[in-house]
């Protein structure tokens, strides 16, 4: 199949998911399954279809399945015990209700520096819902503020896997990339913040229900104990990231324990245990109720997220992104080339990590012809790829479904606010990278 036909089919598939889920209200999993089957049967060899579908579904489930289940337990336990509200009241007392969105964004940015955006969002989603209810701000806006703050550093800065692997491929200085990537992630986050704020007002989303908010007389756990199930996993993952960056170092017993405990699955398990200690009634029946509710809530999220990974795997198997990427890499467009290739790869197959790693593989042999074969050129190429890997997070991105389901907002609202914010954020970051490169390169 030629590239034009393949690209048209991919585009129609993306549109079909949007129409089926928003216009006809079809179940998201069924919509993803039907569209994935359509694209697979029209684009792939018959004998490979089942394998691609299984690989996409299974690999996504394997990568974030435990994180979703454990993160859901943390969220449910914090909600039941009043821990989420305790944190919300504390933050609002320090920032004021008018600045609660900014406080949430800062929290997301800082905690996202060493952590995957999906696990960070899962941990903080309960806080996001409580702050939204307490402040009266629309949930799509608040969810997007948190999601994009986590997402900006995920796409730009090591030790996140995409940036880290691509830095190795490009032979870029990781220390310099962390510093300069952080500097460019800040304006990107601000751009997404102001855009999501504006578009939320334009669409006039209703404020979140106050049903999740306890009365002022409700006895709540302390702020320290409420923060602990959130902070402890993030701190463990952070320490693990720092320790594993120096692979050849000799480590003692304590460091080895931290590396094991800092594995995201174990770290979230520790967070779940800490969250359960907040529950006043610790009888077996009460704990089972929390587990039951967590599993019932996590189940649909797991299935939808894995189905999104399946759709992305089918798109990847069509080869559309790779073919277009090679054509652009050969066009000798300077720093614009890595950006556009990353945009195509991200939009086509969904994963920012895959997008930036694949782009690095395309661009690395062409650095000389692109005029970027220097230390600064490699760094700015990396930043351009990171900006491109933000655009566009939509229905074939598992993170999109994590945001939609854990925030309990419609997919069409997630598209309107979050997906458009990723376009604005990625474009803003690249614009700043390009302007800066004029003076540096």
What does this structure look like?
This protein is mainly α and 441 residues long. It has one domain. Helices cover 79% and strands 0% of the residues. It is built from 20 helices and no strands. It has helices at residues 3-23, 28-43, 46-81, 83-95, 100-112, 117-135, 139-156, 161-170, 174-203, 223-244, 253-261, 264-276, 284-318, 320-329, 336-349, 352-363, 367-370, 375-388, 398-407, 411-440. Helix 2 packs parallel to helix 13, helix 6 (117-135) packs parallel to helix 19 (398-407) and helix 15 (336-349) runs antiparallel to helix 16. It is globular. Residues 210-215 have low confidence and may be disordered.
Relevant terms:
mainly alpha, globular, 441 residues, single chain
């Amino acid at each position: 199949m030629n590239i034009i036909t393949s690209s048209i089919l991919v585009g129609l598939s993306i549109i079909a998911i949007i129409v089926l889920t928003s216009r006809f209200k079809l179940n998201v999993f069924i919509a993803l399954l039907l569209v994935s089957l359509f694209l697979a049967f029209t684009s792939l060899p018959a004998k490979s279809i089942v394998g691609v579908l299984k690989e996409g579904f299974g690999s996504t489930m394997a990568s974030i399945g435990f994180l979703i289940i454990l993160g859901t337990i943390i969220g449910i336990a914090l909600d039941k015990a009043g821990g989420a509200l305790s944190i919300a009241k504390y933050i609002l007392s320090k920032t004021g209700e008018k600045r609660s969105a900014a406080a949430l964004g800062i929290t997301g940015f800082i905690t996202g520096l060493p952590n995957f955006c999906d696990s960070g969002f899962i941990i903080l989603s309960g806080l996001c819902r409580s702050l939204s209810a307490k402040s009266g701000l629309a949930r799509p806006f608040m969810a997007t503020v948190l999601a994009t703050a986590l997402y900006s550093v995920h796409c730009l800065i090591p030790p996140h896997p995409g940036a880290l692997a691509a830095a190795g491929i490009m032979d870029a200085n990781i220390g310099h990339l962390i510093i300069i990537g952080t500097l460019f992630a800040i304006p990107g986050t601000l751009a997404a913040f102001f855009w999501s704020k504006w578009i939320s007002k334009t669409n006039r989303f209703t404020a979140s229900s106050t049903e999740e908010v306890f009365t002022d007389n409700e006895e709540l756990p302390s702020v320290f104990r409420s923060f602990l199930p959130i902070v402890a996993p993030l701190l463990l993952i952070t320490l693990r990231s720092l320790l594993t960056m120096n692979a050849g170092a000799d480590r003692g017993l304590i460091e080895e324990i931290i590396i094991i405990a800092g594995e995201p699955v174990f770290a979230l398990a520790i967070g779940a245990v800490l969250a359960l200690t907040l529950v006043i009634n610790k009888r077996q029946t009460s704990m089972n109720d929390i587990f039951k509710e967590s599993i019932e809530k996590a189940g649909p999220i797991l299935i939808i997220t894995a189905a999104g990974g399946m759709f992305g795997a089918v798109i990847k198997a069509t080869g559309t992104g790779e073919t277009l990427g090679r054509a652009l890499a050969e066009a000798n467009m300077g720093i614009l080339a890595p950006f556009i290739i990353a945009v195509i790869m991200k939009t086509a197959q969904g994963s920012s990590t895959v997008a930036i790693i694949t782009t690095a593989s395309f661009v690395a042999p062409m650095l000389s012809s692109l005029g970027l074969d220097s230390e600064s050129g490699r760094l700015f190429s990396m930043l351009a790829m990171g900006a491109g890997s933000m655009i566009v997070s939509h229905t074939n991105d598992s993170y999109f479904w994590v945001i939609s389901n854990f925030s309990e907002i419609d997919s069409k609202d997630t598209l309107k606010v979050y997906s458009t914010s990723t376009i604005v954020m990625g474009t803003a970051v690249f614009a700043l990278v390009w302007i800066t490169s004029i003076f540096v390169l």
